């Protein structure tokens, strides 16, 4: 007859202190739902930088589809991959258009027109 295992942690197991990290999931721009399905299209750029004192080595774009309303949208995440030895792709960031960032030439043209 085999010994029956006792439930729970083994005697002498240590407690570990773990920090809590707050992560806000991306949401649908139409209905604000966070329930989304990945569409298997992932674009990764090896770009390093710092955002709000957090270092990242890769920018990852994922196409997703909202489960609630069917809206398709793209999420952008900044990941730190310390073991990846690939050379940062400095030029890749120039091809990406961010609607929140305007170049200096656009702002000066708008100022000149006014």
Structural overview:
With 114 residues, the chain is mostly beta strands. It has a domain of 47 residues. Helix content is 9%, strand content 29%. It has one helix and five strands; from the N terminus they run βββββα. The strands form two sheets. It has a three-stranded antiparallel β-sheet with strand order 1-4-5, with no helix packed on it. Strands 2-3 form a two-stranded antiparallel sheet. A hairpin with a 2-residue loop joins β2 and β3. The protein is extended. The C terminus is likely disordered.
Which class of secondary structure composition applies to the elements? mainly beta
Shape: extended
Mean pLDDT: 77
Radius of gyration, CA atoms, in whole angstroms:
22 Å
Approximately what portion of the residues adopt beta-strand conformation?
Answer: 25-35%
Number of helices: 1
Query: Sheet bearing the most strands, described?
Result: 3 strands, antiparallel
Terminal residue distance = 90 Å
Proportion of residues in helical segments: under 10%
> How would you spell out the order of helices and strands?
EEEEEH
Unreliable stretches (pLDDT < 50, length at least 5) are 89-114
The total of beta strands comes to 5
């Amino acid at each position: 007859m085999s010994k029956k295992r006792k439930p729970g942690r083994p005697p002498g197991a240590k407690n570990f202190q773990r920090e809590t990290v707050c992560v806000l999931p991306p949401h649908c721009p139409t209905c604000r739902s966070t329930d989304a399905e990945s569409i298997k299209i992932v674009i990764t750029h090896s770009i390093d930088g710092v955002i709000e004192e957090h270092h990242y080595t890769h920018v990852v774009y994922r196409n997703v589809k909202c489960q609630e309303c069917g809206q398709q949208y793209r999420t952008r995440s900044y990941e730190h991959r310390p073991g990846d030895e690939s050379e940062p792709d400095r030029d890749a960031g120039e091809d990406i258009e961010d609607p929140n960032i305007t170049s200096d030439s656009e702002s000066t043209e708008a100022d000149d027109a006014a």
